[in-house]
């Protein structure tokens, strides 16, 4: 019992993997564009946990992973903003927010 | 103390994973956004557990604001007037809770800089990274990357605002 309660690097990596996999499955199987954005956000949170865990448990230069994670947060927010703009413009024309209705580029 | 830390980690990690799965599987988009918000708040707390308190506060503030914006747009698109009052209260409660959390973390960070440094030698809690160390890295070592990311973020926000403010020209002329 005490061994389980000792939180090691593997615990955090397991959480990061589960979040990443959940986000990935959400992107693959979701049809609603907002849900795809949310799944992307969840996936990025798993990635950030990964960076921060290795930075915190691993090397002597502890701050580098945190800086990288900060940039990922900024870029994720940027991506969400652009995604919302695109969804709004698609919704103006199509009146739907599903990926099934956007098929003009199909070969 | 170690047991409390471990149990807290398990509670937060389990909550984050469960609500992430709920966010993906549930059909209602509003419920999906709220579940994702809880999951991302828990990941922000995990960042704090790893010693990055500043990042945890940024994650909580940014994710709360992003999810609130998504909620507002979903609400606008659905155009369900009867349930608008309920959703506004939900958004208000979430905003107030996130502001309180951010205030608590800021106070803790300022407090910690003073006389809690002696506790940083405890092995099971990583030594915390303060704002000063972050600022040194960002503005001295990674200045160019930070400027580029900030400019890209600013351009995206401006473009977003322009797109939303755009009016139908034909409608105005009629």
Strand fraction of chain B equals under 5%
Could you say which overall geometry of chain A the principal axes of the C-alpha atoms support?
elongated
Hey, roughly how much beta strand do the residues of chain A contain? under 5%
The helix content of chain B, as a percent range, equals over 70%
First-last Cα distance of chain B: 71 Å
What does the average pLDDT of chain A come to?
A: 81
Order of helices and strands of chain A: HHHH
Determine the number of helices of chain A (DSSP H or I, runs of at least 4 residues).
4
Largest sheet descriptor of chain B: none
The helix-and-strand class of chain B reads mainly alpha
**SSE order of chain B, one letter for each helix or strand:** HHHHHHH
Q: Can you characterise this structure?
A:
The complex is a heterodimer of chains A (107) and B (174). Chain A has 107 residues and is an all-alpha fold. Helix content of chain A is 77%, strand content 0%. Chain A contains 4 helices and no strands. The model of chain A has no long low-confidence stretch (mean pLDDT 81). Chain B has 174 residues and is mostly helical. Helices cover 82% and strands 0% of the residues of chain B. In chain B, helix 3 runs antiparallel to helix 4 and helix 5 crosses helix 6. The longest helix of chain B has 32 residues. The C terminus of chain B is likely disordered.
């Amino acid at each position: 019992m005490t061994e389980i309660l000792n939180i090691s690097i593997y615990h955090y990596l397991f959480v990061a993997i589960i979040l990443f996999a959940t986000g990935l499955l959400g992107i693959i199987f979701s049809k609603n564009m907002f849900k795809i954005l949310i799944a992307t956000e969840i996936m990025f949170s798993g990635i950030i946990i990964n960076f921060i865990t290795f930075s915190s448990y691993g090397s002597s230069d502890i701050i580098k992973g945190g800086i990288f994670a900060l940039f990922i947060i900024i870029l994720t927010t940027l991506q969400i903003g652009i995604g919302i703009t695109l969804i709004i413009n698609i919704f103006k024309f199509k009146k739907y927010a599903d990926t099934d209705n956007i098929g003009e580029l199909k070969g | 103390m170690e047991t409390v830390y471990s149990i807290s980690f398990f509670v937060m990690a389990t909550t984050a994973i469960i609500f992430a799965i709920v966010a993906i599987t549930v059909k209602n988009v509003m419920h999906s956004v709220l579940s994702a918000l809880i999951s991302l708040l828990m990941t922000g707390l995990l960042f704090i557990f790893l010693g990055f308190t500043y990042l945890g506060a940024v994650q909580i503030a940014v994710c709360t604001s992003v999810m609130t914006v998504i909620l507002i747009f979903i609400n606008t698109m659905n155009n369900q007037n009867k349930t608008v009052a309920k959703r506004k209260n939900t958004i208000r409660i979430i905003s107030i809770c996130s502001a309180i959390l951010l205030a608590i973390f800021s106070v803790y960070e300022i407090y910690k800089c003073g006389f809690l440094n002696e506790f940083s030698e405890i092995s099971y809690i990583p030594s915390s990274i303060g704002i000063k160390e972050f600022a040194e890295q960002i503005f001295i070592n990674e200045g160019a990357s930070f400027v580029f990311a900030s400019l890209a973020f600013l351009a995206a926000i401006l473009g977003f605002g322009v797109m939303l403010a755009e009016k139908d020209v034909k409608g105005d002329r009629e």
